[in-house]
Amino acid sequence: MNDRYCQGCGAKIQSTEPDCFGFVPVHLLDQDQILCQRCFRINHYGRNEMGPVAAGDSLESIRAGMDWSTGVCLVIDLLDFESGLPPELLGLIRGKGLMVAVNKVDLIPKKTPRKELESWVKSRLDYYGLPGVKVVLVSAANGYGFPDLADHLTALGKQVLFVGITNVGKSSVLQRILHMRIGGGKRKRIEPTISAYPGTTVSVSRWSCPGGLVLADSPGFVPKGRISDFVTPELAQKIIPHKSLSSHLYPVQSGDVVFIKGLCAVECLSSNGQGLLLGFTGSGVQWQKSSSKQLVKCLQKSNEQAPITMWEDRLVQLEPREDLSISGLGWVSSRKSPYKLRVHIPKGAEYTIRPNLLGPKN
Ligand SMILES: Nc1nc2c(ncn2[C@@H]2O[C@H](COP(=O)(O)OP(=O)(O)OP(=O)(O)O)[C@@H](O)[C@H]2O)c(=O)[nH]1
Ligand SMILES: [Mg+2]
Asked: Which of 136, 194, 228, 244 gets mutated to test ligand 1 (max ligand atoms within 8 A of its CB)?
């Protein structure tokens, strides 16, 4: 018998191991379109008991998808932009017809002009070695940018693969495109599975659209150094912005510390005395301000969902209108004063200094 694959997550269907990907009880095997038990439970109960797909398996599937595809749509989460561009992933897509869909734009305050965001994204992509690539800002949550995205996908040939790191919304973007391309009536009941937890899509799954276009979902590339991957899934859900971004403004001078308990601390070593630090994260995260004397307490303040035992600190020079972006957590932006900072982060967490995403530009 031919192998069959779950339409929601792409896992190979099997009926022997209920605790493994692709399980479908024997009595449900005789359906045309098939959904594994894990996808069924994610869709109906929001439960993902099996955890994420392993990084190595995901990489193997992405490679196979690349070989199959005529072009690639790289999906990036605007709120965690730098994490979305790991060099290994960029190496895999180099040489392919490429466009970039920058997702979750709904989380950016409305007063920020979309054109300004687009030029920020283009200059960052330029910096990461992707100059001149077609960029579309989208929101799979509210449909923003999808007509433009659908138009530009056609330039990528007949077999287009959606790729990106875990949890950026690849399956959500594909699901919305399928609604547009296939339409309500003819649309198959089963759709790419979406969940708030990273590592949901297991393997490549393909969808045929009218006109001979085939669109494919792929598992997320597992990035290194993302703080939301270091903590319990419950805390990760609070860290990752879902409905809104929250901002916290602090006048910060030498000797002050702003911190998120158990996750990071930003210590001011020097400033010109009138500076402001603005922290941006998901709304489930609380920032606090204290003094350097309290630093050890701030870091060790118990956060049972963030079992961080090893810390590292780095010296950072942050100019006005620059962001210190911490992978999988958020960013701190400097206003009015250059800052010399010492940032305390979990060992292995990555960070970037960049021109500010939000607010007045230089
Ligand atoms: N606010 C907001 N949330 C989004 C958007 N797109 C996706 N999400 C949420 O992001 C989370 C991940 O979405 P998925 O589509 O499963 O992401 P993925 O990239 O396919 O994830 P993996 O399969 O794990 O690699 C879900 O909670 C989605 O609801 C968006 O445009 N805006
Ligand atoms: Mg997915």
From this structure: 194
Phi, psi of 189 (to 5 degrees): -65, -35
By CB atoms closer than 10 A (0-12, 13-18, 19+), residue 242 is middle
List pLDDT tens digits, range 98-118: 999 999 999 999 999 999 999
Could you report the per-residue pLDDT of 338-348, keeping only the tens digit for each? 999 999 999 99
Superfamily of domain 51-223: P-loop containing nucleotide triphosphate hydrolases (3.40.50.300)
Alpha-helical regions (H) of 30-185? 37-45, 55-68, 87-93, 114-127, 146-153, 170-182
User: What are the angstrom distances between the C-alpha of 294 and each of 109, 265, 315?
Assistant: 33, 11, 19
**Ligand positioned closest to the Cα atom of 102:** 1
Segments making up each domain of the chain, as ranges: 51-223, 229-355
- The SS3 call for residue 51 is coil
Residues facing residue 288 across a β-bridge: 259
Phi-psi region of 295 (alpha: psi -120 to 50; beta: other; left: phi over 0): alpha
CA–CA dist 111, 89 (Å, integer): 33
Return residues with CB closer than 5 A to ligand 2 (ion). Answer: 170-171, 200-201
Q: Is the CB of 337 under 6 A from ligand 1?
A: no
CB 240 within 8 A of CB 167: yes
Model pTM? 0.95
Q: Dmax of the chain from CA atoms?
A: 73
CA atoms of 197 and 169, how far apart (whole Å):
11
Expressed in angstroms and rounded, the spacing between residue 170 Cα and the centre of ligand 1 is 7
DSSP letter at 53 equals P
